Amino acid sequence: MGGSLALALRGRCAKIIAVDRDAHTRENARAIVDETSDDLARIASADVIILALPVRAIIAMLPRVGALAKPGAIVIDLGSTKRAIVQAMEQLPAPVQAIGGHPMCGKENSGFDAADANLFCDARFVLTPLARTSPQTLAFAQSLVESLGARAIILDAARHDKIVAAISHLPFALASALMTIASEIAREDDLVFELAASGFRDTSRLAASDVTMMLDILLTNRDNVANAIRASARNLETLADMIERGNETELRVTLNQIAEQRRAVFNPKSEIINPKLQ
After folding, report:
1. Residues 121 and 27 in one domain
2. Which of 5, 82, 189, 278 suits 121 as a labelling partner, its CA being 20 to 30 A distant?
3. CB 63 within 8 A of CB 85
4. 178 in a structural domain
């Protein structure tokens, strides 16, 4: 995510500095940014500090960022959950401005090797202001998002976390469960993955996501994610009962309703058409 952001902002900033402890990451970043460093103190002169890290790493780093950032600096994060990050941002020194951010895009691959300058184009980019976020900081963040080709959506952190539990974190859990079930069957029949076509590949894709990143997401949004998984289990159980009973009429009505709901939310190009998000 950080590499994609750097690529998208290249040529639009006076200077982009990538700070990372990993030498391999810094080596890959040199082709994208103006300077790389393993010293967090390099952020002391930055006007804008963007934290592109797993959620718990962001939370752990914020006190150090607050101690180093100059007065008036703006801190933005790209974490996938927002309540814990926003709470930690509230503890930053008063002269430092902060706002939470979550680009609603990404890949199952991570690192600068997977950087894509067009990753944010036409994506929704959630901004979660703090109580102390100034109007000027919010306006800057919105302008930054728009410069990436994304659309800014302003949300309360708690509302954000409840929504993404259903549309982002639950899909990962379901993909993981699907991969587990298929792997169990494959131990008895080695044709399972040879026969797997695009439907299985597309549905199970998220199971290959970075584990460290996903652990941080699941454990900093555990109440919402656990509720979503349990609700999904109840729906699957209901569907299993219908299939087991062989009631074709009941099953057809239910599946048609679900199909119509899907068509009502997304157009054939998979663009969101829900007016509440416009």
Report:
1. yes
2. 82
3. no
4. yes
Domain that holds residue 151: 2-155
140 plus 188 within the same structural domain: no
Other C-beta atoms lying within 10 Å of the C-beta of residue 27: 11
pLDDT tens-digit readout, 75-115: 999 999 999 999 999 999 999 999 999 999 866 555 566 67
d(CA 137, CA 130): 10
Domain boundary among 155, 180, 207: 155
Which residue in this structure is represented by tokens 């944010």?
A: 120
Whether residue 35 sits in one domain with residue 13: yes
- Are 105 and 203 part of one and the same domain? no
Q: How are beta strands 17-19 and 35-37 bridged, if at all?
A: parallel
DSSP for the chain reads -HHHHHHHHTTTSS--EEE-S-HHHHHHHTTTSSEEES-GGGGGG-SEEEE-S-HHHHHHHHHHHHHHSPTT-EEEE--S--HHHHHHHTTS-TTSEEEEEEES---S--SGGG--TTTTTT-EEEEEE-TT--HHHHHHHHHHHHHTT-EEEE--HHHHHHHHIIIIIHHHHHHHHHHHHHHHHHTT-TTHHHH--HHHHHHHGGGGS-HHHHHHHHHHSHHHHHHHHHHHHHHHHHHHHHHHHT-HHHHHHHHHHHHHHHHHHB-TT--B--GGG-
Query: From edge to edge, which strands make up the β-sheet containing 74-77?
Result: 48-51, 74-77, 97-103, 124-129, 151-154
